[in-house]
Design brief:
By secondary structure, this protein is mainly α. Helices cover 89% and strands 0% of the residues. It starts with a helix and ends with a helix.
């Protein structure tokens, strides 16, 4: 039990036998009333803080879940874009190879002569 509650019980037991019109009794009664209000306010504040913590945890949990979904979605989009680009590059390989071959063909004779000279000069 709370110490204030025990104190109030003791006070009530002591006061039952005493004069309830005395100024000390009235002061003590007001103190207990104010103490009760403070306890109620503290209890309410603790409940508000506990509720706020629960809400904050829920918000954080939801934010983390949303972040994971967004990361997964973005990753899938990037992978899909990379796969499309790779497919386009693969599709252009035959054309690029033919263009390269066509540009190098006129120089094949010179290349052969260069290689022969290099080998025979050793």
């Amino acid at each position: 039990m709370d110490e204030k509650v025990l104190e109030e019980i003791r006070f009530q037991q002591e006061v039952v036998d005493k004069d309830t019109d005395s100024p000390l009794y009235l002061i003590r009664q007001k103190e207990l009333e104010i103490s009760g209000r403070v306890l109620a306010a503290r209890s309410q504040a603790e409940k508000i803080v506990a509720d706020a913590r629960k809400k904050a945890q829920a918000i954080l949990r939801d934010a983390e879940a949303e972040a994971e979904r967004q990361v997964k979605k973005h990753t899938e989009e990037v992978i899909a874009a990379a796969e499309r680009e790779a497919a386009e590059i693969r599709a252009r390989i035959p054309e690029d190879a033919a263009a390269l071959r066509a540009s190098l063909e006129p120089n094949i004779g010179e290349a052969v002569e260069f290689v022969v000279r290099a080998v025979t000069s050793v």
